[in-house]
Amino acid sequence: MRALGPGSVSSFLKIILDVVYVALSVTAVVVALGLVGVLLFTVDPDIFGLRGALGSASEAVTRRPLLLGETLAAAFYIAGVLVIVNRLRKIFATLTAGDPFEPENVRRLRVIGVMLGALELSRYAAALITAWIAPHDAKPATGVSLTAWFAVLVVFVLAEVFREGARLRREAELTI
Question: What is the structure's pLDDT at 61?
């Protein structure tokens, strides 16, 4: 089976990325609506009739900012993954078209690398903030993920490979 062009593995992966993109878009809308609900709840806990579900008044005061922070973290994470999947869709569209060394793919890969790094840094920030706001709650994993940082480096190296490929293609087009 071919790797590039119509009917290739890249076109199959592009279809999968399109489906994932739609699912993530729906999830982003749901998280945005949840964020509005959490904001309303943070302002007035009685708005949904859930004051008793949070325990005592002092527990509710502690949990509301934590709930808001968790929802914001989820929204940021979904947005980051949405950006990554969107850029991957565009890259795979060029692969399906048989033009992998389009200069725009370099920028797309760099955005993916930056977003992967930002998502990993936000994981550390979320763990620190959670530990500060609610030290008695279960602590999330705060260790450095070598796999995530390796992925960031690989994406930046691939961006440079694509940049070099685009440069070589440009030179070949100028050759008579």
Answer: 56
Residue 69 inside a domain? The answer is yes
Domain that holds residue 31: 9-174
CA dihedral 100→103→106→109, nearest 10 degrees, is: -60
Q: Which two tokens stand for residue 62?
A: 């502690």
Give me the number of domains the chain comprises.
1
Average pLDDT over residues 66-85: 89
pLDDT, residue 66, reads: 73
Query: Is 55 domain-assigned?
Result: yes
Q: Return d(Cα 102, Cα 105) in angstroms, integer.
A: 6
**Higher per-residue confidence, 39 vs 147:** 147
Domain-embedded: residue 3: no
| Separation CA 10–CA 15 (nearest Å) | 9
